[in-house]
Amino acid sequence: MVLVTLSSVPLFEITFTVLTMDNTSGQGVIDCLFAAGFDPAASDSDNALRAMRRMDLLGKCLDEQSTSYSGVIATAVMLAVAGAVYWYQPKLRDLRRRSAPVETVDADGSLATELALLRTHAGLGPELSFHVDLARTTSGAYVHGRSGRYSVHLHAGLLVRRGIDPAGFRAVVLHELAHVRHRDVDYASASTALWRVFVVTALLPHLAQYGYALALLALHTDSPWFPAAPSMVGFVLVALLLVGLVHLARADLLRKREFHADLRAVAWGADLAGWQRPEPVGGVLPSWRRFTALLRTHPGWEQRRRVLADPGRLDRLAPLEMFLTGASASLLHGAVSVLPFMPRGQTVLWISDGLVTLALCSVLGVQATRAASKLDRIAGSGVLAGLWLGLGLLVGQFAVSGRYRVDLLPSNPQYLLVFLLVATVPMVWWTQILRLLAGLRGRRRRVALVVCALVAATTLLSGLLWWRLGGERITMGVGDPAGAFARAYTLSVHGDWQPYASDLAALSAGMSVLTPLHAQLLVSVAAVLLWLTPLVLLLLQRAEARPEVRRTLAAGLAGGLVSWVVVVAVRYALATPRPADVQERTGAFLIVHLWWLIVTVMVVCMAAGALVAAFSRRHWMLRALVAAQVVQVFVYGAVFLSFAADGCLGPANAVSDTCHWHLRNGATAAYPVIRLTFTNAVLGAACAALLGAGAAWLLRRWRARPGAVVAPLPAPAAAAHRRVAALKAGVVLALCVPAVFLSVVAGTQPRPSDYTSNVARELAGADGSPGSPPGREKEATGPDDRKPERETPAVDPAIQQRQMYSWLHKGGIKRVRRFDTAVTSLYAEIERTRTRGAGKKKVLIEEKDFHRLCGDVRKQTDRTLDYFALPDKELQREWSAALSRVRTAARKCQEAMIPPKGLPKAPVKEREGDFTDSLHEVVRGVRDVTAAFKKITIEAGSKTDHRGRTDD
Known about the structure:
Number of strands: 4
Strand content: under 5%
Helix content: 55-70%
Strand order of the largest sheet: 1-2-4-3
Largest sheet: 4 strands, mixed
Low-confidence stretches: 375-379, 707-720, 766-791, 948-952
Number of helices: 30
């Protein structure tokens, strides 16, 4: 019901926005997107590029929008109405059904006495009343009411059954009393009231609104807005998914409450024979009956008997429950992230993903703990539950993202499969770590349980954050937007990049995968604890578990030695051919060299995790992480030593030709490798372990070898020998100390470079596209230092008019007004000077005043240029040229009055000429700006004059 409540806020907000929309006001978030160049007919990747071109301006425009709380207020009203429905629902139900007090049909008083005894046996008070539903002839009963006023309604047929089967009568009554004891009536009544009010007030208007819009688009396929139909379908899909999720979740919850009521009734002494009843027979196919069983709120008798025979079934993680939880979590993130009081930027990602993680852990934590403590087989290791949870996250994310797409499918939909790993890795780790915690007792167990729960939650949060910070962009096809990241490397790093075009493409694509989490401190701490916690817990087990630890560490050592050989082989392969010039080797050649070493570190660690998990039978995820960490330490050492000894490696040398020991060179080369792989290698090893264990399971199944049954966990060590305890402490320190040092290295901030500014410059072209492939010559630029535009598809005139109108009203008019104010002030000073010099041969000019006024004109011209590009490319060139002409003239005016610092003053005659020419040029430039702005207003269909004022 939390999902329903939070989802109602954006639904109400959208409905109110559409009802109160004024297309001539130029207000709203959608206008900011249109001002940035949004085109419904373009692809998602193209629209994303237009938004990324000037993210600073777009963010500022969005921040300037007024915050509307109409959705929050409407949700509060909806909750109040739902509360009223819940309160008066029992009375309305009594009016619709013929029920009579038990006393009216109890001639001898025996029925009331028996019911009172059963009520007392159940621990309930006399405020609980009993009634008879005379219209129902079946042998059942039901409970309704609200908190403090419950009533059990017995079917008339149940009274007949009392005389034939007294034990069955008591079983039915005890079952209904168990519902009252468990407060199931409150849960069912409150959820039903809220859901019905939500459907009537929020959901149906929302569906009607978008259904009407889709119908109009279907009738007018030639409309310029027709390409935006998929986004409208996305809104409808989210609403329908919400309906399905709520109904399935509510039905599943009520079925479980029935199971718990059965168990409570049996515990109170109900006869099990009361559940030996046949399934209803009808004309429904068995397959259809099994499917519709998910929609029913009452389970079948066979299901009830299975639960009574094995109550532990309720603690198992059911696939349906996991799927519903995952899908609900995705919808919850979509609802939370658009709440009006949420901050913008990355903060909202942390808050929304943190809330989703908290919700998932609170829902699944206790149940996963119970399930892990009762399951002994590898099949119950959490893999199946995690996969279903990930599938729910995937479906929910696909539906939610449809609200912001104009394409039916994202450019790279295969990346959505990452949700399977995001959910399964922490679920498996948590399940396996719980088995190790079972060997601890007392305070030690409680502390370890809290630490492990935080690590599992942070791991889940890390996966969600990776998706928000990078995975979403990659799925949309803008992992490297138009090659801007790759071209930024060619501008930031010297050297000839032409021979490394394929390497550069792999570098830019790989960096979009590795960079989202590499600088997150919380994720780095969780990555260390992912392997350190199981290592400590494994060492705390008795001697029976020591061979398992020894084999894991031995596998890590063997993998570490192999990693040294792999690093040397990679160094040798990359060193041929090597540039002849030493300076050339420190540029593009070295960057490519380091990139493939980064790939090597990731591959070696992931391979170690996959192999150890494939050959392990118990704790395969935990053992894989420990082994991968050992390999990670070794491979970092190999990278460091190979560059520290660069020049002594013969054909594997990278930069140096002389054999010397250069510790600084080793540290400089190892730093980017450690920074980018310290966290990613651990998380990648966990994902590879999952895949390796899955492949091994499939291979064993193909060979008809069932998985071995896991032996019971050994008890914790009571009093280990001092030598053994010292050895365990040494193992932990040998791995922990390097890990802490590496985490500090990975967390340090690098020195600022030109790369970020080059990325921004590459994205800020007039069409949002950087120019040519690596190895190009410097491109020609326009008068405003923008790069020449590439040919882009023609925009529909109606869409372009909307873009132009939004361009004006989301900042264009404001900038033009400020520009006009500065120019008017300069003209006024010119007029005052002319008035003072009337009839005189020479006029005394206030140099400081003109320097200040020309500076203001130049400043406002720069601000006017620093804005979204116009959708009309030809008009954009005219607009930029006119403003650039004013900016150049204003600069010359300033220099004529007061020369730049460090330059001597020119002769008076020369300065007078420059000053006069600059003012004339300002006037001509302003005339061009006025003409260009008039064209803009005409194309936008706006009633705005050349001064940026609206004609009423």
